[in-house]
Write a structure and sequence with these properties.
Elements (H helix, E strand, L loop, with lengths): L1 E7 L2 E7 L4 E4 L11 H10 L7 H4 L6 E6 L7 H14 L7 E6 L8 H15 L1 E4 L8 E5 L6 E4 L1 H4 L3 E7 L2 E2 L3 E2 L13 H8 L16 H12 L4 E7 L5 E7 L3 H14 E4 L3 E7 L9 H11 L3 E10 L9 H9 L3 H11 L4 H13 L1 E5 L4 H7 L3 E3 L2 H12 L5 E4 L6 E4 L3 H5 L1
Parallel strand pairs: 3-19, 4-5, 4-9, 5-6, 9-12, 14-20, 15-16, 15-19, 16-17, 17-18
Antiparallel strand pairs: 1-2, 7-8, 10-11, 12-13
Helix pairs in contact: 1-3, 3-4, 10-12, 11-12
Length: about 425
Protein backbone atom coordinates (compact mmCIF):
# COMPACT_ATOMS: atom_id res chain seq x y z
CA UNK A 1 0.00 0.00 0.00
CA UNK A 2 1.08 3.56 -0.74
CA UNK A 3 -0.11 6.38 1.55
CA UNK A 4 -1.02 9.60 -0.29
CA UNK A 5 -1.84 12.61 1.89
CA UNK A 6 -4.43 15.02 0.51
CA UNK A 7 -5.45 18.43 1.95
CA UNK A 8 -8.99 18.55 3.37
CA UNK A 9 -10.10 21.81 5.00
CA UNK A 10 -7.39 22.80 7.46
CA UNK A 11 -6.07 19.25 7.82
CA UNK A 12 -5.01 16.31 5.60
CA UNK A 13 -6.54 12.91 4.94
CA UNK A 14 -4.67 9.76 3.97
CA UNK A 15 -5.57 7.82 0.82
CA UNK A 16 -4.30 4.22 0.80
CA UNK A 17 -3.70 2.88 -2.71
CA UNK A 18 -2.22 -0.50 -3.66
CA UNK A 19 1.17 0.16 -5.28
CA UNK A 20 0.15 -1.73 -8.44
CA UNK A 21 -2.76 0.68 -8.99
CA UNK A 22 -1.03 4.01 -8.39
CA UNK A 23 0.30 5.88 -11.42
CA UNK A 24 1.60 8.67 -9.15
CA UNK A 25 0.74 12.16 -7.97
CA UNK A 26 0.30 15.20 -10.22
CA UNK A 27 1.59 18.38 -8.59
CA UNK A 28 2.42 21.93 -9.70
CA UNK A 29 5.98 23.26 -9.95
CA UNK A 30 5.54 26.06 -7.43
CA UNK A 31 8.00 28.96 -7.44
CA UNK A 32 9.20 31.09 -4.56
CA UNK A 33 7.69 34.54 -4.19
CA UNK A 34 9.82 37.63 -4.84
CA UNK A 35 11.58 38.91 -1.71
CA UNK A 36 9.81 42.27 -2.11
CA UNK A 37 6.59 42.37 -4.13
CA UNK A 38 6.60 46.15 -4.56
CA UNK A 39 10.23 46.13 -5.76
CA UNK A 40 9.29 43.43 -8.31
CA UNK A 41 6.47 45.64 -9.66
CA UNK A 42 8.93 48.58 -9.85
CA UNK A 43 11.34 46.39 -11.82
CA UNK A 44 8.58 45.46 -14.30
CA UNK A 45 7.61 49.14 -14.69
CA UNK A 46 11.22 50.02 -15.49
CA UNK A 47 11.46 47.23 -18.12
CA UNK A 48 8.12 47.41 -20.00
CA UNK A 49 7.36 44.76 -22.61
CA UNK A 50 6.47 46.02 -26.09
CA UNK A 51 5.86 49.66 -25.19
CA UNK A 52 7.42 52.80 -23.67
CA UNK A 53 7.56 53.33 -19.93
CA UNK A 54 4.34 54.58 -18.39
CA UNK A 55 6.17 57.78 -17.34
CA UNK A 56 6.92 58.38 -21.05
CA UNK A 57 3.34 57.68 -22.19
CA UNK A 58 1.72 60.03 -19.63
CA UNK A 59 2.11 63.81 -19.70
CA UNK A 60 1.83 66.20 -16.78
CA UNK A 61 -1.68 67.29 -17.82
CA UNK A 62 -2.95 63.72 -18.53
CA UNK A 63 -6.16 62.43 -16.98
CA UNK A 64 -5.42 58.82 -16.00
CA UNK A 65 -7.82 55.92 -15.34
CA UNK A 66 -6.56 52.76 -13.65
CA UNK A 67 -8.69 49.61 -13.40
CA UNK A 68 -8.17 47.34 -10.36
CA UNK A 69 -9.95 44.18 -9.23
CA UNK A 70 -13.05 44.33 -7.03
CA UNK A 71 -13.60 42.51 -3.73
CA UNK A 72 -14.34 39.15 -5.42
CA UNK A 73 -10.69 38.88 -6.54
CA UNK A 74 -7.68 38.84 -4.25
CA UNK A 75 -5.06 40.49 -6.49
CA UNK A 76 -2.56 42.58 -4.45
CA UNK A 77 -3.82 45.86 -5.92
CA UNK A 78 -2.17 48.08 -3.30
CA UNK A 79 1.26 46.53 -3.97
CA UNK A 80 0.83 47.15 -7.72
CA UNK A 81 -0.81 50.56 -7.47
CA UNK A 82 1.71 52.44 -5.30
CA UNK A 83 4.61 51.96 -7.78
CA UNK A 84 2.26 52.88 -10.67
CA UNK A 85 1.28 56.12 -8.90
CA UNK A 86 4.97 56.89 -8.30
CA UNK A 87 5.70 56.32 -11.99
CA UNK A 88 2.86 58.65 -13.01
CA UNK A 89 3.94 61.29 -10.48
CA UNK A 90 7.45 61.18 -11.95
CA UNK A 91 5.92 62.24 -15.28
CA UNK A 92 4.28 65.21 -13.52
CA UNK A 93 0.78 63.67 -13.28
CA UNK A 94 -1.00 64.97 -10.18
CA UNK A 95 -2.91 62.59 -7.91
CA UNK A 96 -6.12 64.60 -8.42
CA UNK A 97 -6.00 63.70 -12.14
CA UNK A 98 -5.94 59.96 -11.41
CA UNK A 99 -9.12 57.86 -11.04
CA UNK A 100 -9.01 54.26 -9.83
CA UNK A 101 -11.93 52.18 -11.09
CA UNK A 102 -12.94 48.98 -9.33
CA UNK A 103 -13.66 46.56 -12.18
CA UNK A 104 -16.85 45.10 -10.77
CA UNK A 105 -18.19 43.55 -13.99
CA UNK A 106 -21.70 42.40 -13.05
CA UNK A 107 -20.88 42.34 -9.31
CA UNK A 108 -22.09 44.86 -6.74
CA UNK A 109 -20.15 48.03 -5.90
CA UNK A 110 -17.15 47.84 -3.58
CA UNK A 111 -17.96 48.80 0.03
CA UNK A 112 -15.80 51.44 1.79
CA UNK A 113 -14.25 48.89 4.14
CA UNK A 114 -13.45 46.63 1.17
CA UNK A 115 -11.86 49.54 -0.70
CA UNK A 116 -9.61 50.16 2.30
CA UNK A 117 -8.62 46.51 2.41
CA UNK A 118 -7.97 46.38 -1.35
CA UNK A 119 -6.04 49.63 -1.78
CA UNK A 120 -4.90 50.76 1.66
CA UNK A 121 -5.46 54.10 3.39
CA UNK A 122 -2.66 55.97 1.61
CA UNK A 123 -4.10 55.35 -1.86
CA UNK A 124 -7.64 56.21 -0.77
CA UNK A 125 -6.44 59.55 0.60
CA UNK A 126 -4.55 60.38 -2.59
CA UNK A 127 -6.79 59.44 -5.53
CA UNK A 128 -10.47 59.28 -6.46
CA UNK A 129 -12.02 55.78 -6.57
CA UNK A 130 -15.24 54.63 -8.22
CA UNK A 131 -16.98 51.29 -8.65
CA UNK A 132 -17.98 50.32 -12.18
CA UNK A 133 -21.72 49.87 -12.70
CA UNK A 134 -22.53 47.64 -15.70
CA UNK A 135 -26.07 49.10 -15.83
CA UNK A 136 -24.99 52.78 -15.70
CA UNK A 137 -26.76 55.20 -18.05
CA UNK A 138 -23.53 56.89 -19.14
CA UNK A 139 -21.66 53.88 -20.57
CA UNK A 140 -19.70 54.77 -23.72
CA UNK A 141 -19.94 52.79 -26.98
CA UNK A 142 -16.42 52.23 -28.36
CA UNK A 143 -17.16 49.93 -31.31
CA UNK A 144 -18.24 46.42 -32.28
CA UNK A 145 -15.91 43.42 -32.22
CA UNK A 146 -15.30 42.19 -35.78
CA UNK A 147 -15.03 38.48 -35.04
CA UNK A 148 -18.10 38.06 -32.83
CA UNK A 149 -20.19 41.19 -33.43
CA UNK A 150 -20.27 42.28 -29.79
CA UNK A 151 -21.27 45.92 -29.23
CA UNK A 152 -18.75 47.13 -26.67
CA UNK A 153 -19.97 49.62 -24.05
CA UNK A 154 -17.49 50.59 -21.33
CA UNK A 155 -17.16 52.78 -18.25
CA UNK A 156 -17.28 56.49 -19.15
CA UNK A 157 -14.45 57.52 -16.79
CA UNK A 158 -12.17 55.00 -18.50
CA UNK A 159 -13.30 55.89 -22.02
CA UNK A 160 -12.71 59.61 -21.43
CA UNK A 161 -9.25 59.28 -19.82
CA UNK A 162 -6.10 60.31 -21.72
CA UNK A 163 -4.09 57.39 -20.34
CA UNK A 164 -5.70 54.02 -19.65
CA UNK A 165 -4.05 51.45 -17.37
CA UNK A 166 -5.09 47.95 -16.27
CA UNK A 167 -3.86 46.14 -13.13
CA UNK A 168 -4.55 42.49 -12.37
CA UNK A 169 -3.25 38.99 -11.80
CA UNK A 170 -2.90 36.18 -14.32
CA UNK A 171 -4.01 32.64 -13.55
CA UNK A 172 -6.15 29.94 -15.13
CA UNK A 173 -9.77 30.79 -15.93
CA UNK A 174 -12.59 28.40 -16.91
CA UNK A 175 -13.68 29.92 -20.21
CA UNK A 176 -11.36 32.87 -20.88
CA UNK A 177 -8.39 30.47 -20.69
CA UNK A 178 -6.55 32.80 -18.29
CA UNK A 179 -7.51 35.75 -16.10
CA UNK A 180 -5.69 39.06 -16.32
CA UNK A 181 -4.82 41.39 -19.21
CA UNK A 182 -7.87 42.11 -21.35
CA UNK A 183 -10.27 40.81 -18.67
CA UNK A 184 -9.83 44.13 -16.85
CA UNK A 185 -11.89 45.68 -19.67
CA UNK A 186 -14.22 42.78 -20.45
CA UNK A 187 -16.00 42.03 -18.17
CA UNK A 188 -14.50 44.33 -15.51
CA UNK A 189 -15.63 47.73 -16.88
CA UNK A 190 -18.09 46.68 -19.62
CA UNK A 191 -21.85 47.03 -19.95
CA UNK A 192 -24.18 44.21 -18.94
CA UNK A 193 -25.28 43.29 -22.47
CA UNK A 194 -21.68 43.37 -23.70
CA UNK A 195 -20.68 40.97 -20.92
CA UNK A 196 -23.59 38.61 -21.57
CA UNK A 197 -22.81 38.47 -25.31
CA UNK A 198 -19.21 37.55 -24.48
CA UNK A 199 -19.90 35.02 -21.73
CA UNK A 200 -22.52 33.14 -23.78
CA UNK A 201 -19.57 31.93 -25.90
CA UNK A 202 -18.37 29.76 -23.01
CA UNK A 203 -20.35 26.95 -24.68
CA UNK A 204 -17.68 26.79 -27.41
CA UNK A 205 -15.39 23.74 -27.15
CA UNK A 206 -12.27 25.97 -27.17
CA UNK A 207 -13.53 28.20 -24.33
CA UNK A 208 -11.78 26.32 -21.56
CA UNK A 209 -9.08 26.51 -18.93
CA UNK A 210 -5.59 27.21 -20.23
CA UNK A 211 -6.66 27.63 -23.88
CA UNK A 212 -6.22 30.90 -25.80
CA UNK A 213 -5.90 29.69 -29.39
CA UNK A 214 -9.31 29.55 -31.07
CA UNK A 215 -11.02 30.60 -27.82
CA UNK A 216 -13.86 32.97 -28.80
CA UNK A 217 -14.28 34.37 -25.27
CA UNK A 218 -10.60 35.38 -25.18
CA UNK A 219 -10.65 36.73 -28.76
CA UNK A 220 -13.70 38.87 -28.03
CA UNK A 221 -12.22 40.15 -24.75
CA UNK A 222 -8.98 41.11 -26.51
CA UNK A 223 -10.83 42.95 -29.28
CA UNK A 224 -12.92 44.81 -26.69
CA UNK A 225 -9.78 45.89 -24.82
CA UNK A 226 -8.25 47.10 -28.10
CA UNK A 227 -11.39 49.11 -28.85
CA UNK A 228 -11.11 50.63 -25.37
CA UNK A 229 -7.58 51.81 -26.34
CA UNK A 230 -5.67 50.44 -23.36
CA UNK A 231 -2.24 52.10 -23.06
CA UNK A 232 -0.51 50.00 -20.44
CA UNK A 233 -0.99 46.98 -18.17
CA UNK A 234 0.63 45.72 -14.98
CA UNK A 235 -0.06 42.04 -14.28
CA UNK A 236 1.41 39.73 -11.68
CA UNK A 237 1.61 35.96 -11.24
CA UNK A 238 1.30 34.63 -7.70
CA UNK A 239 2.14 31.31 -6.11
CA UNK A 240 -0.33 29.32 -4.01
CA UNK A 241 0.65 31.28 -0.90
CA UNK A 242 -0.46 34.51 -2.61
CA UNK A 243 3.10 35.81 -2.99
CA UNK A 244 4.09 37.71 -6.14
CA UNK A 245 6.40 35.46 -8.17
CA UNK A 246 6.88 37.85 -11.08
CA UNK A 247 5.40 41.09 -12.41
CA UNK A 248 4.85 42.01 -16.06
CA UNK A 249 4.24 45.51 -17.41
CA UNK A 250 3.72 47.08 -20.82
CA UNK A 251 1.65 46.25 -23.89
CA UNK A 252 -1.89 44.87 -23.42
CA UNK A 253 -1.17 41.63 -25.26
CA UNK A 254 2.59 41.11 -25.10
CA UNK A 255 2.93 41.60 -21.32
CA UNK A 256 -0.12 39.39 -20.72
CA UNK A 257 1.26 36.56 -22.88
CA UNK A 258 4.58 36.64 -20.99
CA UNK A 259 2.64 36.25 -17.74
CA UNK A 260 0.74 33.31 -19.25
CA UNK A 261 4.08 31.54 -19.90
CA UNK A 262 4.96 31.82 -16.20
CA UNK A 263 1.55 30.44 -15.17
CA UNK A 264 2.09 27.48 -17.51
CA UNK A 265 5.60 26.83 -16.15
CA UNK A 266 4.20 26.66 -12.62
CA UNK A 267 0.81 25.01 -12.95
CA UNK A 268 0.46 23.15 -16.27
CA UNK A 269 1.63 19.53 -16.04
CA UNK A 270 1.91 17.12 -19.00
CA UNK A 271 0.67 13.59 -18.29
CA UNK A 272 1.36 10.65 -20.62
CA UNK A 273 -1.60 8.44 -19.76
CA UNK A 274 -5.13 8.78 -18.49
CA UNK A 275 -6.29 7.02 -15.33
CA UNK A 276 -9.44 5.01 -14.59
CA UNK A 277 -9.72 6.87 -11.27
CA UNK A 278 -8.51 10.34 -10.31
CA UNK A 279 -8.56 11.31 -6.64
CA UNK A 280 -8.38 15.10 -6.52
CA UNK A 281 -8.26 17.48 -3.58
CA UNK A 282 -9.13 21.13 -4.11
CA UNK A 283 -6.04 21.92 -2.02
CA UNK A 284 -7.66 22.39 1.39
CA UNK A 285 -8.74 25.67 2.97
CA UNK A 286 -9.63 28.17 1.48
CA UNK A 287 -9.91 26.40 -1.89
CA UNK A 288 -12.46 23.91 -0.53
CA UNK A 289 -14.58 26.32 1.54
CA UNK A 290 -17.59 25.49 -0.64
CA UNK A 291 -18.52 23.36 -3.63
CA UNK A 292 -18.57 26.38 -5.96
CA UNK A 293 -14.86 27.03 -5.30
CA UNK A 294 -13.82 23.37 -5.06
CA UNK A 295 -15.42 22.45 -8.40
CA UNK A 296 -12.37 23.97 -10.12
CA UNK A 297 -10.30 20.98 -8.96
CA UNK A 298 -12.74 18.55 -10.51
CA UNK A 299 -12.75 20.51 -13.76
CA UNK A 300 -8.94 20.54 -13.86
CA UNK A 301 -8.85 16.75 -13.48
CA UNK A 302 -11.12 15.98 -16.45
CA UNK A 303 -8.41 15.69 -19.11
CA UNK A 304 -6.50 12.96 -17.25
CA UNK A 305 -9.35 10.57 -16.46
CA UNK A 306 -10.71 8.13 -19.04
CA UNK A 307 -14.19 8.59 -20.48
CA UNK A 308 -16.52 6.72 -18.11
CA UNK A 309 -13.91 6.85 -15.36
CA UNK A 310 -14.35 7.92 -11.74
CA UNK A 311 -13.34 11.20 -10.13
CA UNK A 312 -13.22 11.44 -6.34
CA UNK A 313 -13.38 15.08 -5.24
CA UNK A 314 -11.97 15.66 -1.75
CA UNK A 315 -13.30 18.99 -0.45
CA UNK A 316 -14.61 19.79 3.01
CA UNK A 317 -17.15 22.46 1.90
CA UNK A 318 -17.92 23.80 5.41
CA UNK A 319 -19.86 26.67 3.80
CA UNK A 320 -22.02 24.36 1.69
CA UNK A 321 -22.62 24.96 -2.01
CA UNK A 322 -21.35 28.56 -1.93
CA UNK A 323 -23.35 30.17 -4.74
CA UNK A 324 -27.10 30.68 -5.04
CA UNK A 325 -27.19 30.86 -8.86
CA UNK A 326 -25.23 27.59 -9.08
CA UNK A 327 -27.75 26.00 -6.68
CA UNK A 328 -30.79 27.48 -8.44
CA UNK A 329 -29.72 26.39 -11.91
CA UNK A 330 -28.99 22.84 -10.70
CA UNK A 331 -32.41 22.74 -8.98
CA UNK A 332 -34.46 24.44 -11.70
CA UNK A 333 -32.79 23.41 -14.94
CA UNK A 334 -31.08 20.14 -14.11
CA UNK A 335 -29.79 18.98 -17.52
CA UNK A 336 -27.10 20.15 -19.92
CA UNK A 337 -29.35 21.10 -22.85
CA UNK A 338 -31.64 23.25 -20.70
CA UNK A 339 -28.64 24.95 -19.08
CA UNK A 340 -27.09 25.61 -22.54
CA UNK A 341 -30.30 27.35 -23.61
CA UNK A 342 -30.26 29.47 -20.43
CA UNK A 343 -26.60 30.44 -20.96
CA UNK A 344 -27.46 31.71 -24.47
CA UNK A 345 -30.68 33.41 -23.35
CA UNK A 346 -29.76 34.93 -20.00
CA UNK A 347 -26.26 34.23 -18.71
CA UNK A 348 -25.76 34.87 -14.98
CA UNK A 349 -22.43 34.33 -13.17
CA UNK A 350 -22.70 31.08 -11.23
CA UNK A 351 -24.74 29.39 -13.93
CA UNK A 352 -21.53 28.37 -15.69
CA UNK A 353 -20.67 26.03 -12.79
CA UNK A 354 -23.98 24.20 -13.27
CA UNK A 355 -23.18 23.84 -16.97
CA UNK A 356 -19.69 22.45 -16.33
CA UNK A 357 -20.79 20.07 -13.59
CA UNK A 358 -23.66 18.63 -15.64
CA UNK A 359 -21.34 18.26 -18.64
CA UNK A 360 -18.74 16.43 -16.50
CA UNK A 361 -21.44 14.08 -15.21
CA UNK A 362 -22.32 12.99 -18.76
CA UNK A 363 -19.04 11.10 -19.13
CA UNK A 364 -17.79 10.47 -15.59
CA UNK A 365 -18.92 9.11 -12.25
CA UNK A 366 -18.16 11.61 -9.51
CA UNK A 367 -17.87 10.86 -5.79
CA UNK A 368 -17.70 13.75 -3.30
CA UNK A 369 -15.94 13.39 0.05
CA UNK A 370 -17.11 16.39 2.09
CA UNK A 371 -19.16 17.63 5.03
CA UNK A 372 -21.95 18.71 2.65
CA UNK A 373 -25.26 17.04 3.64
CA UNK A 374 -25.97 14.04 1.41
CA UNK A 375 -29.34 15.46 0.39
CA UNK A 376 -27.69 18.45 -1.32
CA UNK A 377 -24.81 16.51 -2.80
CA UNK A 378 -26.98 13.79 -4.32
CA UNK A 379 -30.38 15.39 -4.99
CA UNK A 380 -29.27 18.86 -6.10
CA UNK A 381 -25.76 18.35 -7.43
CA UNK A 382 -26.22 14.74 -8.63
CA UNK A 383 -23.01 13.47 -7.02
CA UNK A 384 -22.31 10.18 -5.28
CA UNK A 385 -21.02 10.67 -1.73
CA UNK A 386 -18.75 9.10 0.85
CA UNK A 387 -17.83 10.36 4.30
CA UNK A 388 -14.26 9.00 4.25
CA UNK A 389 -11.71 9.05 1.45
CA UNK A 390 -10.93 5.31 1.56
CA UNK A 391 -14.64 4.42 1.49
CA UNK A 392 -14.89 6.54 -1.66
CA UNK A 393 -11.83 4.82 -3.13
CA UNK A 394 -13.21 1.33 -2.45
CA UNK A 395 -16.48 2.34 -4.15
CA UNK A 396 -14.51 3.69 -7.12
CA UNK A 397 -12.66 0.36 -7.45
CA UNK A 398 -16.04 -1.41 -7.58
CA UNK A 399 -17.21 0.98 -10.31
CA UNK A 400 -14.04 1.01 -12.43
CA UNK A 401 -12.58 -2.42 -11.61
CA UNK A 402 -9.99 -3.68 -9.13
CA UNK A 403 -7.14 -3.28 -11.66
CA UNK A 404 -7.90 0.44 -12.15
CA UNK A 405 -4.95 2.80 -12.52
CA UNK A 406 -5.05 5.86 -10.28
CA UNK A 407 -3.75 9.42 -10.36
CA UNK A 408 -3.79 11.55 -7.18
CA UNK A 409 -3.92 15.36 -7.39
CA UNK A 410 -3.27 17.00 -3.98
CA UNK A 411 -3.53 20.61 -5.30
CA UNK A 412 -6.38 20.32 -7.79
CA UNK A 413 -7.45 23.98 -7.79
CA UNK A 414 -3.89 25.03 -8.66
CA UNK A 415 -2.88 22.31 -11.13
CA UNK A 416 -3.85 21.88 -14.77
CA UNK A 417 -2.74 18.46 -15.99
CA UNK A 418 -3.09 17.83 -19.71
CA UNK A 419 -2.93 14.48 -21.45
CA UNK A 420 -0.10 14.29 -23.97
CA UNK A 421 0.53 10.83 -25.33
CA UNK A 422 4.23 9.92 -25.45
CA UNK A 423 5.79 8.94 -28.79
CA UNK A 424 5.89 5.36 -27.51
CA UNK A 425 2.14 5.39 -26.75
CA UNK A 426 1.34 6.96 -30.14
CA UNK A 427 3.29 4.25 -31.92
CA UNK A 428 1.36 1.43 -30.23
Amino acid sequence: MVDVWLPYGKTDVCLRVPARNLLGTIEPAEKEGAADGKAEVQRALSEPIGTKRLSEIARAESKVAIVVDDATRKAPSETMLLPVLAELNSAGVKDENITVIFGCGTHRAVKPEEAKELLGEEVLKRVKTISHDCKAADLVYVGTTKTHGNKVYINSAFAEADVKVLLGDVGFHYYAGYGGGRKSVMPAISGEETIKHNHAMLLNANARTGVLEGNPVHQDMTEAARLAKVDFIVNIVENKKGEIVKAFAGDLEQAFLEAVKTVDEMYRVNVERRADIVVVSAGGHPADMNLYQAYKALDNALDVVKRGGVIILVAECPEGHGNQVFYDWMTRLGDVKTVEREVKRNFVMGGHKAYYLLKALLNHQIVLVSSLPDYYATSIFKLKTARAINDAFNEALKMAGSASRVWAMPQGNYTLPQFKASEETKAQ
